[in-house]
Amino acid sequence: TWFELSGLSDFYPYPAQSWQRYTVKQMNDNMTNPKFFSVVDGPFRLKSFHAGRYASMVPNLAYSGPDKPHISRLIFRFLNSNASVFFALKSGTVQLGNLPDPLYPARKQLTNDRLTISGPNWGFNYLGFNFSNPKIAFVNSLLVRQAMMHAINQDLMIKVLGFGHGARAYGLVPGNPPVYLSPEAKALLKHGAYDPALANKLLKEAGWHRGPDGIREKDGHKMAFTLYIPPSMIRGPTLLATMLAKVGILVRMREMPFNELYEKMIDPHSKNWQAVYLAWSQTAYPTGGSIFKCGGVQNGYHYCNKEMDAMMDRIRITSGLDALYKFQNYFTDQQPVIVLPNMKLFVMAAKNIHGVSHAITPGGNFYPQFLWVSHDQ
């Protein structure tokens, strides 16, 4: 099942007669050149691409699928802030787009649009650590990571960040739809894990005690870390920092452009960064790929747990869901990253655009061939 749903998607068939004269680098360098690609198998094809501005798509006349496009042109515009997205929707420059979570209360200003609530995305949000950084060696303690999980009030995060539209999450297997959730995961999601008294108990058990300023200390070291945040995402980390401070953990926040943040993370020799506030999308069969495997190509966290690796490997060679259940339960217990709740998606569309609920799947994927436009407003 894993191979069919996740493994096969890593293989892209390229007709030899069209591509054998090109190197992988040449194909990569020309990925935005519409004259370079002669083979397109989806309902749309690229017409033009202007970096940092927009990508223009038109129907692929050679598409043989049953779900042919209803619209003659689709333009994706690149906008770099919550405010620019909102005002593009308000002015009609953009007729369909995500309404940024912080601006959900202002949705009534978008009088020409309709709201569709979908999702959450098929993935997970998280607080991740650099396990190779000696300055935050305390994150190697399982008790500390479990304490962080119990210190976070996910229901409050959903109320504040998603205005009540969200879902608890404690593992890397998404809960919506719940087809891959173990019985233990379902029970945990139902009851929640917020328990600050237990968090304090676990931190004491790990040998960390509050200092005069309320921040926990051990052997002369404070329990504190610097958290890197992508732009326009300060609300979540601020709430998170407040919750962790209540159990004696100090969080310093630093906003950083995503490409710079990611560059620091993927450097296998980097021991300088400490923590990140990010999200991760999942493949159809949600195992997390190589993000948590010892030495995995996507493991920028330098996390290594041989027992977890063995459980992950068994998923790929074992039929049924039992191996996945055991892995996700162990992951939730270990918390290699502190998993955070998932927020639903707020999508605004002009009133003459239809099919939005069909075009956006429950997992947050976008299939614009199902959109159609009427002349009425």
Automatic annotation (TrEMBL):
<dbReference type="GO" id="GO:1904680">
    <property type="term" value="F:peptide transmembrane transporter activity"/>
</dbReference>
<dbReference type="GO" id="GO:0015833">
    <property type="term" value="P:peptide transport"/>
</dbReference>
<dbReference type="Pfam" id="PF00496">
    <property type="entry name" value="SBP_bac_5"/>
</dbReference>
<feature type="domain" description="Solute-binding protein family 5">
    <location>
        <begin position="11"/>
        <end position="285"/>
    </location>
</feature>
<dbReference type="InterPro" id="IPR039424">
    <property type="entry name" value="SBP_5"/>
</dbReference>
<dbReference type="InterPro" id="IPR000914">
    <property type="entry name" value="SBP_5_dom"/>
</dbReference>
<protein>
    <submittedName>
        <fullName>Peptide ABC transporter substrate-binding protein</fullName>
    </submittedName>
</protein>
